[in-house]
Amino acid sequence: MDIKKKLSEIIALHTESSGFDAGFISNLISVPPDEKLGDFALPCFRLAQKTNPKLVAEDLREKILADSENAGFFSEIRVVGAYLNFFLNRGEISREVVSEVLEKREKYGRSGEGRGKTVIVEFSSPNIAKPFHIGHLCSTAIGSSLSRIYDFLGYDVVKINHIGDWGTQFGKLISAYKRWGDRDAIAADPINELLKIYVKFHAEAKEHPELEDEARHYFKLLEDGDPEVTALWRFFVDASLNEFNRMYRLLDISFDSFAGESFYSDKMPEVVDILEKEGLLEESDGAKVVRFDDPNMPPCIILKSDGSTIYATRDIAAALYRKRHYDFYKNIYVVGTPQTLHFKQVFSVLAKMGYTWSSDCVHVGFGYVRFPDRALSTRNGDVVLLEDVLKESIAKTREIIIANGTADQIDDLDKACEIIGVGAVLFEFLKNGRERDIIFDFAKMLDFDGESGPYVQYTYARGRSVLRRAAEAGITFGDADLNLLCEDNEYAVVKVLEKLYGTVRDAAAKNEPYIVTRYIIELAKAFNKFYNSTNILRSEPDVRAARLALTDACTTCLKETLHLIGVGVVEKM
Ligand code: ARG
Q1: Residue 75 in domain
Q2: Cβ(302)–Cβ(275) under 8 Å?
Q3: Which residues line ligand 1 (CB under 6 A)?
Q4: Which letter does DSSP use for residue 30 in this model?
Q5: What is the per-residue pLDDT across 274-327, written as a single tens digit (0 to 9) for each?
Q6: Which structural domain, as residue segments, surrounds residue 554?
Q7: Is the pLDDT of residue 374 over 80?
Q8: 529 alpha carbon to ligand 1 midpoint, in Å?
């Protein structure tokens, strides 16, 4: 149930004739800072037009209360100055909300607003033959969560990994391989070995510039489809993807398409053609570029002076392909803010080409990862690998659980540590607005009492343990009288449960998974307050049943919202 929506509709019945519909009312309604002022408040200034807002408030109150349909919904409506303060009937709200959660279970909060619309979420998109470092987790975690959020809202979601598998650097890699490559060593440890020969290439090319020509030659062969060179390139790509897939498995992330840059290599002549025909291409130092009217926007290079295409050309081809192939409603790129200008250029070129859908392309940026206690890259150029971070988190989780003395109660300790350790990292990455930098701190991430993944997972496990004990004692609550959930701490949980609809909608509208993470923290806190303030199992039987139902609703909602940010749960910890 969406209470704010329902309230807006009730009010709008009496304001629509003056031109204020439910949407308008909904935007005016706020939640008072103090519970004593009611569940919701409506300022009547803007509804008053030329009359006195207090009179408008009084008149609205009369009309709403006179409608017998609303009898059970409100316990009180107060006029305070020019405001209407609404006190809802707690028992009624609790019954509606909790019964809806228990009926819909993990589908609670889902909606069909996206039905029939396709949203593309492009994320992760690492470069072949380069290490998968901790910075890549931003795009990976945010994109995966957004894809789950849009799916929750009923959109058809297409998850694309636009891997960096094309460009002149592959000419260099092939040249390096031909000179110093060791196939078995690469197969065994692809990223490190490829990186090693790539670095060596750069060092040697300083002394022997002719190596650069050789690399260009190999890239040309690759572009022309030379079988031997193509087979080598395939080998590099597959070996790298094998490594990346290990990360994706650990993170429980999948993709619908790995169509990366190489996929568009044969689709670029068309882009150049269209630009040519539309008269948008201009010469600039031998290169061909598209210029913009905005003097602050540097031109977008389409063809380099040697006639080869670049990153931006491939992105234009990719957008065209995606529109034709998926007919997207939204095409989202989860890529760091350093590429903001790049996407502005790409989207502007598409607009100049006359594609009105260019405004449906969205760049979702994010900040940097920083370590308070170590550098992101070490002296010899090594980066902090994602895999190392996840392994460290899993190992530290195990230490904490052993120190807490609960290890023997957990059925599969390895699996539990993996879910908690990986979840802790994901949770931390999705806890704040995405454009803020992430300060990486294991102690905070794994603090079972802080605003962390483990804290929420622990809250879930606590709730599940109460439900298990009730089941063992033969206590059922299927027919609980949910109207009894009226105490402050119970009603507070109900109100958070109720907010799920609006929360997910808001997260999608802003492309901000942290809005869901904050909700999860709020729900866990409300549940813990309720849990700590009462002995659920020792309550009177009818109260006990209602409280068990609330516990069931709450754990169900925690599990499904954690899923929205890619974090799993454990039954015991
Ligand atoms: N591979 C690129 C990088 O690591 C990110 C790709 C972003 N996506 C895109 N369509 N350009 O920087």
Answers
A1: yes
A2: yes
A3: 122, 125-127, 162, 164, 315, 333, 335
A4: B
A5: 999 999 999 999 999 999 999 999 999 999 888 777 899 999 999 999 999 999
A6: 425-564
A7: no
A8: 44
